[in-house]
Amino acid sequence: MPSILPLGDPAPSDGLLPAQAVAGAADRAFGLYVHIPFCAVRCGYCDFNTYTATELGGGASQDAYATTAVSEVDFAASVLRNSGLPDRPLSTVFFGGGTPTLLPAEDLARILTAAVGHWGLEPGAEVTTEANPDSVTPASLQVLADAGFTRVSFGMQSAVPHVLKVLDRTHTPSRVPQVVQWARDAGLAVSLDLIYGTPGESLEDWRFSLETALSYQPDHISAYALIVEEGTKLAAQIRRGEVPGIDDDDHADKYELADQLIGAAGLSWYEVSNWSRTPEQACRHNLAYWRGDDWWGIGPGAHSHVGGVRWWNVKHPTAYAGRLAQGLSPAAGRETLDAETRDVERVMLEARLVSGLATSTLGDHGRHAVAGLIADGLVEPPAAFHGTLVLTLKGRLLADAVVRRILPG
């Protein structure tokens, strides 16, 4: 969740949604995202809307946050009902951050319980929390599992101490196998998040991180290229020459190694940066984003989307809590997407999935581009001949370029 909010139209103080959001809602899945905006330490590469205790200032606290988040859950249920949206059980719930598990597990459970009280859960619904390896205990993970969480995504990032140091990560590599076992003992599925391309990380460092992560036999792995965001500590370090810059060729080499090793360990890619042991263990919450389903985002800076209407909350926890205390929508702005914008976004997202992009949904420009994409080795020929664009390994490395060739002008 980047910290800079987009521009948009003013959001109504009552939060009510237009008729466009209601149309076809019964056929769309509905999920909930809960943003926990707290971190023990701000990582040097992070541009997310997060705060350490010393950055919060007056009027906001971690202790009161669960109560404030529950008030937005209540507000959301009222807005959806009063806007004419049909009752839909939650298909996915995702607690992200920040570090959700900096809050007591009982607070996270209370927020989830409030949401389930309003909407219920689909049978077999996925309920995930992100966690840092040093922010959980066997007891806290058991509390989460007992409350209905089904999955935990640990921010491992690397198994190499000097890489973790550049990233300002606070856990030690030896902590990761412990927490993976604790999660399994609690009955939770396990995902590990990795980052490649950190300044000073060699290809052998990255191989070691991959092999170490895979030795824990996770159900799911995410591997993201490090992006240096302006305004971060890491961007300043690179600008001053304190650490080396980012190299695109290095990123490509590391992505290819990741795909090779993760695939050999029995996990398959389902999105450019994500692999799962079985299709059922893919992150269904993220798939809902990529497929354009509906979700409500709880928390400061959180984004929501219902039927082509998108809105985002005010950034700071103090302002967020103040709005809700007055019975007002915490939204800072919103936009109603037109059909062309929604179609462009659909192409951009579906092209990244192993399920692919149906050529029948493309315009003339996109359909005419297919032959060139096949010739350049960017999409799988058999799938393309049967009407679906599925990226090859080369295509995944150049996914943005593929999308540009599909979309007109």
UniProtKB/TrEMBL annotation:
Chief location of this protein within or outside the cell: cytoplasm
Pfam family, one: Radical_SAM
Positions of the Radical SAM core domain: 24-268
Alphabetical list of SUPFAM superfamilies matching this protein: Radical SAM enzymes
Gene3D superfamilies to which the protein is assigned, alphabetical: Aldolase class I (3.20.20.70)
Sorted UniProt keywords: 4Fe-4S, Chaperone, Cytoplasm, Heme, Iron, Iron-sulfur, Metal-binding, S-adenosyl-L-methionine
Entries under InterPro entries matching the protein: Aldolase_TIM, Coproporphyrinogen-III_oxidase, Elp3/MiaA/NifB-like_rSAM, HemW-like, rSAM, rSAM_sf
CDD domains reported in the protein's UniProt record: Radical_SAM (cd01335)
Localization, UniProt: Cytoplasm
Protein task: Probably acts as a heme chaperone, transferring heme to an unknown acceptor. Binds one molecule of heme per monomer, possibly covalently. Binds 1 [4Fe-4S] cluster. The cluster is coordinated with 3 cysteines and an exchangeable S-adenosyl-L-methionine.
Family from the record: Belongs to the anaerobic coproporphyrinogen-III oxidase family. HemW subfamily.
Protein name, entry field: Heme chaperone HemW
Organism, scientific name: Pseudarthrobacter humi
Protein encoded by which gene: hemW
